[in-house]
Please model this.
Amino acid sequence: QVKVQCQKGIPASLRARCWPLLCGASNRMKQHENLYKALDEQPALQSWVDVIERDLDRQFPFHEMFQSKDGHGQRGLFRVLKAYTQYQPEDGYCQAQGPVAAVLLMNMPAQAFWCLVQISEQYLPGYYSPLLEGVLFDAAMLTWVLKKTCPAAHKHLQNHGVEPLMFATDWLMCLFTRHLPFNTLLRVWDLFFCYGVRVLLQVAAVLVRRVLGRAEQRKQCQGQMETLERLRGLCSGLFLYSSGILNSFCVVVGHAVFLGCKLSAIMFGWVAYVKITSTWMQGLKVCGSR
Amino acid sequence: MAKQYDVLFRLLLLGDSGVGKTCLLCRFTDNEFHPSHISTIGVDFKMKTLLIDGIKVRIQIWDTAGQERYQTITKQYYRRAQGIFLVYDITSERSFQHIMKWASDVDEYAPDKVQKILVGNKSDEVDKRQVATEQGVKLAKAYGMDFFETSAFTNHNISETFTRLAEQVLAANKKDLDLLRTSINDELNLAALEEEEGLCDSAAGDQHKGCWC
Model:
């Protein structure tokens, strides 16, 4: 029942309550009722504090919440990340946790810490640890997923020496926070909290297929750099246009494409959605150049 | 279709987190500076073509995440680099001290022939300076590298630094270069040749391989 609802998308008004329940953060919070408060009050290792402070204004520099140095966004982010280094001293702080914690704070400040704990420990173990073994493993998994779901693209990547770690490290580690329009991101996270890491791999595979799925697309990317430029460019393009009018556009497309679909169907719908947005963006550019 | 360049090679930006590697790169390739930007996760890259001594040099510049744990991922790029920027922040003594660690990693993982250059960034922030210019000069001398103080903010010494390293890489591979001069129409893809170890078919390819592998 819950899974079906997640596929349809969690209503914005309920998201703040659903995510912590889905990922188990609510339970953890109950079990360790005053732990976060205690960690928050204790000082952390100065070396971690320095690294975290240097990153506070490098997460969502254009988001209102994170713009001012002493604003509640940056302060909240500091507290959550600092507490995590005390909670899990062997892991400390990994830079990719910054954008993830920021998105959690935007949605549910009170449970953000425990959601981050659940993501780092249960959903993506080894993603933020000193050796990043989880990332290395899932990058290899992505190769396998691509081989299964889009052999032509997989072969193209192999021929040109393009490995998933070259283009998908930040996709996976930041859970697409920097790569998808915000409304789409929230929908992907709805699914992620429900189904776990395979959602990330599937979204990554869809993005790759969007760039290299057709023979003529592959022909245009003759070389490692050309291929990488396309793969990286797809997301930065969406990222740049994600604010303002495009967002409202996404919602409409999102509803039409996503509603009532099965997971795989959603991901296919995604291709259509990205296609539409990029055509639309090209239109914008043409208008701009005139 | 004729290639847009004569030579292709890879440069790598290394240094602690927050020293301004991404800003240096953005200033060089796009002539832009964003005071607020996002931290690099994993690796990113940009391309630019320079004209040096009448040769069109296409450079790929790989930008790496500075946090130590990303070295699991970034180290595999060391051995593919022909030139490396070691970047520190003149307002951070710590980032300067870490140059030693970065340099020893380069010695360990990069090819022997790799060209290096030392860069002290944020030279515009005079009030916050913690590392004197002389310290940079001295360290560079000890390592036998060239040294530049740069500012991505004011665009000070940026293109000079990148061009210098590109020239050094070209000079270090003069043999290939001379070959190129005699047959300027042939594409000489240094980076690709290096990867195709033992797979070069043509006689010309074998000659390159002798120098590059």
